[in-house]
Each structure stands twice: as structure tokens, then as C-alpha cells.
Amino acid sequence: MCRAKNTSNDDSINRAVYDNVDLQTEIAGLREAIEQLNINLTIERQKNALQRQQIDQLNVSLTAERLSTVAQLIDLMIQKTDNEE
Questions:
Q1: Where are the alpha helices (DSSP H) in the chain?
Q2: Angstrom distance (rounded) from CA 9 to CA 12
Q3: Higher-pLDDT residue of 65, 2
Q4: Smallest Cα–Cα separation from 60: which of 72, 50, 52, 71?
Q5: Strand, coil or helix: what is 85?
Q6: Each residue of 30-84: pLDDT tens digit?
Q7: HSE on the CB side for 28, CA within 13 Å?
Q8: Vertex 18, ends 14 and 20: CA angle to 5°?
Q9: Taking the mean position of all CA atoms in its chain, how far away is CA 3?
Q10: Rounded-to-integer distance, Cα 81 and Cα 85, Å
């Protein structure tokens, strides 16, 4: 009976060891997946930052063009006023 109990305990220990190894393997896999996700997230953040920078540059360019157009319109209005006088 003692022998059977020891065998049962040994089986339980072996299962626990295998379960532990399986969990460690799964944890390692999850850590690798998290690391890859963090890398991907960093890349996406860099892309977004670049896109924001490009959008800001376009906004500056459009603002400059609009100001130039307004200045031209004002100049034309002044010329028209001068010609009418």
C-alpha cells in the first residue's frame, strides 16, 4: 500500500513538473508576443508622429498660401481703389 501511495505521489509530482514546464513555455511565448507587440506599437507611434509632422507641414504651407492669396486680394483692392480715384 505504501508503494502504491508513493507511486501516486510520484505521478502527481511528475504531472506538476510537466504542468510547470508547460506554463513556463507558455509564459515565455506570451512574453515574446508582448515584446513583438511593443515593437509594433513603437513603429506605429513613429509612423503616426511622422504623419503628424507631415500634416503640420502641410497646414503651414496651406496657411502661407492663404495668407499670400489674401495679401494679393488686398493689393488688388488697393489698386482698384487707387484707379477709381
A1: 2-84
A2: 5
A3: 65
A4: 52
A5: coil
A6: 999 999 999 999 999 999 999 999 999 999 999 999 999 999 999 999 998 988 8
A7: 6
A8: 115
A9: 59
A10: 6
